Every structure is written in structure tokens, then in C-alpha cells.
Amino acid sequence: MSATKEKEQQTDKPRRRSRAERSEETRQALFQAAAEMVGEYGYAEASISRITARAKVAQGTFYNYFDSRQDLFDQLLPALGEKMLAYIRSRMGEATGPEREERRIRAYFDFLRDYPEFYRILYEAETLAPKAHRQHIDAIAGGYARALSRSWERGEMPGYEKRELEVVAFMLLAARGYLSMRYGFSGDRPGAMPEWVIEAYMKFVRHGLYDAQAPGSKPT
Amino acid sequence: MSATKEKEQQTDKPRRRSRAERSEETRQALFQAAAEMVGEYGYAEASISRITARAKVAQGTFYNYFDSRQDLFDQLLPALGEKMLAYIRSRMGEATGPEREERRIRAYFDFLRDYPEFYRILYEAETLAPKAHRQHIDAIAGGYARALSRSWERGEMPGYEKRELEVVAFMLLAARGYLSMRYGFSGDRPGAMPEWVIEAYMKFVRHGLYDAQAPGSKPT
Torsion-angle region of residue B216: left (phi > 0), alpha (psi -120 to 50) or beta? Predict the structure, then answer.
């Protein structure tokens, strides 16, 4: 136990949080409530009154943090996207080549299971928060393309030119989106992805990406 | 010139269309107007009055054909999906293997260029006409999986088990959707897909799908 913690216990008085800390907590509570409401009811039904009620703050407090409901929605998906990237990064370890890709897709499906509201927030955003959707896709695809570039620089994808990696990143992002739509739900909630679907995905990725020959090398 | 056509010209009097034919023409005009309105303004702004004005029919006439605006929207995407499948089929010829896949993606991108409203109708449907979206995706993915099965039965994809072809169909559908989103627009309208993007796509598909080894065969 840390010295600070001990002192807190001895005096039996919680440390007073700073104004900035409390403000950030409220902001996070509003994000969390908005995510739950959009996940459950969609953007159209996620009103400010529902969001503030869920976050247990006064309705007027909302405007200390966001200009409007749309302003919150425009920040919601990019914020969740950051969380998703951190989640996936934490699962990558030192893996390289196709194993890295396998960890990535498994982590993505696990993220959906842990944050079931993410899927609806993402797909409704294309229509109802297009600015956020564009920002999210750019950030995620950019990160993916950079990760593939590091793999490419290790010589793991000899068949590709560097600028093609962005095309690959979009194809893989697209695939995981559609595969979760088709196979990742039991009822309305994300469930475990069937193992044979991951295997079929990995077959395509392994041969398509990592086994592709360098131009000029002998075809097999 | 056919005998009928000649007769029409001789009498200089157009053949009187049957009631059923006129009814079908009105129906098609409403579909066409709805497609244009949704493509331009989105489902939310595509009101019955806008649609009937564009189709040049009285507003009340609408209800002879559709129960509601939502009923029209629910039929719109599947109808366009049929049109898309016919368009792509007409371009396939006798091609087999990866060449068939290349024709398919080129035909898809050309369809988007010729029917620029399709993209918005499709992506907004996931949120605003979910029943139509589900029906469309099932129809398109089912058709794609059957086409891949015929290819598989010709022995073109020795590395795959039959049930994995549906996973592949979803991956390829997803890829063309995301690639059109990223590379297929100049400004707001679909434009020509850059040639190098199609080449990168085909590299992935050729190696991932057609060059994949049968289980048990020697790795290269």
C-alpha cells in the first residue's frame, strides 16, 4: 500500500479531488452514458435528457461540456476509436507477420464483445455523425497502414509496394467490419466469433498478404 | 423493323398501353425519383412530396403503390441491388479464376459511376432502412458466395473448404465497399477508381484466394 493510500485510511477522509479532476470525471460520465444510449437506442433517440439522466448530472450541466448533442456525437466515435486502438495495441506483444494480424483481428472481436455499443455507434455515424465517421476511419486506417508499413519494412510483405499498404489496410478494416456484422452477433449483442471464420480470414490474409511473391520472383 | 413497329408507323398512332403497363411505369418512375432524392438529400429529407414532384405524379397517387414512405425505402435498396447484380452479370462473360474477380470489381465500380446515388442509398439504409439493408446484403452476399462456389467446383480455389467461401464473399464485398468510400469519389460523386488500387486489390485476391495451397500440399 502506498504512503498516500495509508494516510488516507488513517485519517479516514478521502483526498479531495481537484476541480479539474471532477470536471474530467463528469465529461467521461457523459461520454459513457452517450455510448450506452446510442448503443441501445441509436443516435436519433439518444436525447440530452436521456444522456444526462444516465450520467446522473443535471441537464443544464451538459452545456458546460458540449456545445450541442451533435458536438458530443462528433466527439464520441473518435474517443471510442482511441479506446479501441489502445485495447488492440495492448494485445499485440512482440508478434510479427501473420501472427500479428491474427492477434489484431481477435483483439478487435474481443473489443466488440466488451464494448457491444461500439458497432452501432460506428455504423450509424456514417449517416448521423458523418464528420466523426470520416475522422474515425481516417485515424484507424492511418494507424493500420502505419502498422503494416513497419511489417513491410521488416520484409514481411515482399509482394507489395509501399503505397499499396493503404489499400490493404482498407480491405482488412472492411473485412472485420462485415465479418462482425455477419458472424459476430448472437441475437442483438456481439458474441464470440466462430473459430472457423477466423481461420478462413487468416487463410486469405496469410496467402494474400504475406505469401505474395515479390515482383520478378518465380511464380510457384 | 418488326411487323408491329411498321404497322405503328404506318398508322402514325402509338399503341395504347395497357393499364398494367402504365401502372408499372408509374411505379418505376417513383422508384427512380426516390433513388435520386435519397442519393441527393438522404432518406431523412426525401419526402413523399419531393419524390412525387420529381416523378411528376400527384401526391395521393403515391399510396396506390406504397403503404408509406418507409415501405418505398424498404423496397428501394433490394430493387437497386437487383439492377446492380444484372449489371455485373452482363460484364462477366466466360472469364474464370482471378480474371472473373477482376471483371467483377471493375463492373462494380462502373456501376457506382453510372448510378452515383447507389452508395448513399446503401450506407444510409443500415441505419434508416435496416430491413432493406439486411435483405440486400443477404441477397448480394448469397449471390457472391454461389458464384465463388462455381469457381471452387472448377477447382480454382484448392486451398479452401466450401463453407469458407461465404467468409470470402463477405470479405470481398466489404473490400469493394470500403475501397469505393476511400478512393472512388472525386468530390461528392463517384469517379473512376485509380488503376493502381484495382491492381493492389487484385494482388491480394489472386494470392489470397486462387494461389492458396490445398491443405497438406507443400508450402512454397
Answer: left
- Reported confidence tier of residue A1, pLDDT bands at 50, 70, 90: very low
Q: What ipTM did this prediction achieve? A: 0.83
Whether residue B62 lies inside any domain: the answer is yes
Residue A190 belongs to some domain of the structure: yes
Closest CA to B214 of A207, A194, A159: A207
In B, minimum Cα distance to A207 occurs at B208
- Residue pair B52/B131 in contact (Cβ under 8 Å)? The answer is no
Same domain? B33 vs B98 = no
Same domain, yes or no, for A123 and A153? yes
- Tally of CB atoms within 10 A around B150: 11
Q: Which residue has the cell 503505397?
A: A163
The C-alpha of B92 sits at a distance from chain A's nearest C-alpha, in angstroms, of: 23
Q: Which residues of A touch B205 (CB under 8 A)?
A: 208
Are the CB atoms for B198 and B105 separated by under 8 Å? yes
B161 and B76 share one domain: yes
The string of pLDDT tens digits covering residues B148-198 is: 999 999 999 999 999 999 999 999 999 999 999 899 877 667 778 999 999
- In this structure, the answer to whether residues B183 and B95 fall within a common structural domain is yes
Question: Shortest Cα distance from B21 to chain A (angstroms)?
Answer: 36
